[in-house]
Amino acid sequence: MRTTFAATHALVNANRVQMMKLQAELATAQKELATGRLADVGLGLGGQTGQVISLRQEYSRLEAITHTNSIVAARLEATQASVDLIAAGAEAFLAALIDGSRTEVAAKGLPAIAKSAMEALVAALNSTHAGDYLFAGINTDVRPVADYFASPASAAKQAVDDSFVANFGFAQGDPAAGAIAAADMSQFLDAGFASLFEPAGWTSAWSSASNENIRSRISPSELVSTGTNANSDGIRKLAMAYTMVVEFSAANLGDAAFQVVAEKAVGLIGSAAADLTAERAQLGAAQERVSNASNRMSIQMGVLANHVNALEAVDPYEASTRISTLMTQIETAYALTARIQKLSILNYV
Predict the structure, then answer these.
(1) What whole-number distance in Å separates Cα of residue 96 and Cα of residue 94?
(2) What is the model's pTM?
């Protein structure tokens, strides 16, 4: 008959290994109770781990787009405010122009009013948000419009002067301008002068903005235009009206010729106002789409979070019970180890 000897040292080491395992399980259970989710998702879910990863990736994607939408919404709001200022300036100038065309004294004050309106227009077109120019199209780092009244003369100012001289043979400040016939002035404004505000003339002398507006992805399936640019019809018409009143004033032209200028400016501003209204409506529609998309994604993110939580969440009552059980087992193992360590052959001799 053969017997196997059991040493006290071997029994103690066996308990030590078991205690280390129990302590690791206790740390895991305590972490799960504190966080409310599985400490090791892969180990806890097994084959469902891929589903959790996919859900979290979709949640992160929606979260990123929602964050971008908040930036887009702020930019749209700033753009809308600038367009509102431009439209308000146009309405104020139109009222001044109608009043000024009635009396000679008021007419002579129109160039100063037009100059202020032009400066306000340029300032609005060069407005920025978060370091980006709002009316530059996709060229957000480029100043859209140069100062018309800059010194030395801007390209736009030089183009206007050159066009007038080419048509009449003298500058607009020359005394001879007083003899320009109404028909000749009308022909010039409709031809040579108007060509400066056509798309080709405008982009060559006035604007550095891109014709292509910013497009933003506001949801996984929606890509919309969320901006505008300084090359729109309404902006060019306003600039044309302001410029003709500034440059071809009642002080230089005869009454009949200036009346032509005033009438054409009134028509341009009226048309520009309609264009600006359409542009504001377009920006408003974009704002609504961004808001709706963000609301939909917020709901989707809530659903995704619930799915992830359902897979990863730990029952706190179960975790508490497991912790209590593990602590009892650890205490029992400690007590057993202490008793084993007290065993000695001398107690039985």
Answers:
(1) 5
(2) 0.77
Residue 245 has pLDDT above 60, yes or no: yes
DSSP 8-state code for residue 213: P
What DSSP designation does 224 have? E
Tokens 């003298």 belong to which residue?
Answer: 170
Please state which CATH class domain 77-303 belongs to.
mainly alpha
**Cβ contact 86:224 at 8 Å:** no
For the chain, where are the E strands, in sequence order?
128-129, 132-133, 215-219, 222-225
At position 213, the amino acid (one-letter code) is: N
Distance CA 54, CA 200 (A): 50
Q: Which of 72-76, 111-115, 284-288, 342-346 is predicted least confidently?
A: 342-346
- Which residue reads 């500034």 in tokens? 246
* Cα torsion 269, 272, 278, 280: sign: negative
Domain assignments of the chain as residue spans, ordered by start:
8-53+313-348, 77-303
Do 143 and 208 touch, CB atoms closer than 8 A?
Answer: yes
The pLDDT tens digits for 306-330 are 887 766 556 566 666 776 776 776 6
CA–CA separation, 331 and 325 (whole Å): 10
Entry field: residues in the chain? 349
- CA 176 centroid distance within chain: 52
Confidence of residue 105 (pLDDT cuts 50, 70, 90): very low
DSSP string of 305-329, one letter each residue: HHHHHHHHB--HHHHHHHHHHHHHH
Structure tokens given for 1: 């008959």
pLDDT at 98: 84
